[in-house]
């Protein structure tokens, strides 16, 4: 399975393409794609260049990022690793 990830142009946040074609900040809300549809959905996402930058496919499953790039995608999904008082970790502790 695959998912589309990108960064929002307005603030740089990491986002994932959701089932309703909106951009979700949680990887758990990402639309899971089979290999047959992944390239077409990615192309459609890239066409939304006024909203996002650097869209690409990641390996994903029902638990989130998977495969070789899982560590990188986990860091992108959860925020910086050097300071827990910034980013998504800080939001989770509020």
Question: In a few lines, what is going on in this structure?
Answer:
It is globular, with a radius of gyration of 13 Å. The protein is built from three helices and five strands; from the N terminus they run βββαββαα. The chain has a five-stranded antiparallel β-sheet, with helices on both faces.
Number of strands: 5
Q: Rg from C-alpha positions? A: 13 Å
Approximate helicity band: 25-40%
The arrangement of helices and strands along the chain is: EEEHEEHH
Q: Give the oligomeric state of the chains in this entry, treating copies of one chain as homo and distinct chains as hetero.
A: single chain
Structural class: alpha+beta
Give an account of the 3D structure:
The structure is a single chain. This protein is α+β, with helices and mostly antiparallel strands. It is 29% helix and 27% strand. It contains 3 helices and 5 strands; from the N terminus they run βββαββαα. The protein has helices spanning 35-46, 70-78, 87-92, and strands spanning 2-8, 14-17, 23-24, 52-61, 64-65. It has a 5-stranded antiparallel beta sheet with strand order 3-2-1-4-5, sandwiched between helices. A hairpin with a 5-residue loop joins strand 1 and strand 2 (14-17). The protein is globular.
């Amino acid at each position: 399975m695959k998912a589309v990830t990108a960064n929002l142009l307005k603030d740089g946040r990491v986002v994932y393409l959701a089932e309703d074609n909106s951009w979700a900040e949680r990887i758990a809300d990402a639309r899971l794609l089979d290999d047959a549809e992944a390239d077409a959905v990615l192309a459609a996402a890239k066409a939304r260049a006024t909203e996002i930058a650097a869209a690409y496919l990641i390996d994903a499953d029902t638990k989130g990022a998977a495969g070789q790039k899982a560590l990188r995608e986990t860091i992108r999904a959860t925020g910086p690793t050097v300071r827990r008082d910034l980013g998504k970790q800080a939001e989770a502790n509020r």
